[in-house]
Structure formats: C-alpha cells, structure tokens
Automatic annotation (TrEMBL):
<protein>
    <submittedName>
        <fullName>Plasmid segregation centromere-binding protein ParG</fullName>
    </submittedName>
</protein>
<dbReference type="Pfam" id="PF01402">
    <property type="entry name" value="RHH_1"/>
</dbReference>
<dbReference type="InterPro" id="IPR010985">
    <property type="entry name" value="Ribbon_hlx_hlx"/>
</dbReference>
<dbReference type="InterPro" id="IPR013321">
    <property type="entry name" value="Arc_rbn_hlx_hlx"/>
</dbReference>
<feature type="domain" description="Ribbon-helix-helix protein CopG">
    <location>
        <begin position="38"/>
        <end position="69"/>
    </location>
</feature>
<dbReference type="InterPro" id="IPR002145">
    <property type="entry name" value="CopG"/>
</dbReference>
<dbReference type="GO" id="GO:0006355">
    <property type="term" value="P:regulation of DNA-templated transcription"/>
</dbReference>
Amino acid sequence: MAITKPVRPKSAESFISGAPDASVAAQVKGVRRGTKQQITLTIAPELLAKVDEMAERMGQSRAALINLAIYRTVEGGV
C-alpha cells in the first residue's frame, strides 16, 4: 500500500477567486514568448511577398521587419 499525503481542503477564498468570472483583469490573447506576446496576423499574399523581399534585402527576418514597421508607426504616429 502506497503512502500518500493527506489532501488539504481548499479555502473558500481561493475557490471563489479561481472562478472564471471572478477576475476583473482583461484576458490577454496570444501566447507569451519571453518578453514578447505572440499574435496572429492575416495579410494579403502580395503584401507578404513584398515584406519578404524587403526583409531579405535588409538581412532581417520577416518578424523583425514587421516589428520595426509597427514600432516606427506607433512611435512616429500615423
């Protein structure tokens, strides 16, 4: 017979705070990768081809070029 630890009952507070509607904070979409947030982006194939060509000319990855474009747009204003 295996020896097991006794199961501790959960406190009422931890049970209530674990409810899906208990948290006030907004849910964040996507997956966290280190310090960045992964997102899904839909883009026209023609535009994606231009992005890939430009990234290759600059010696950057597609993701790096898209990040740079977003950064410049946000910081510089549209």
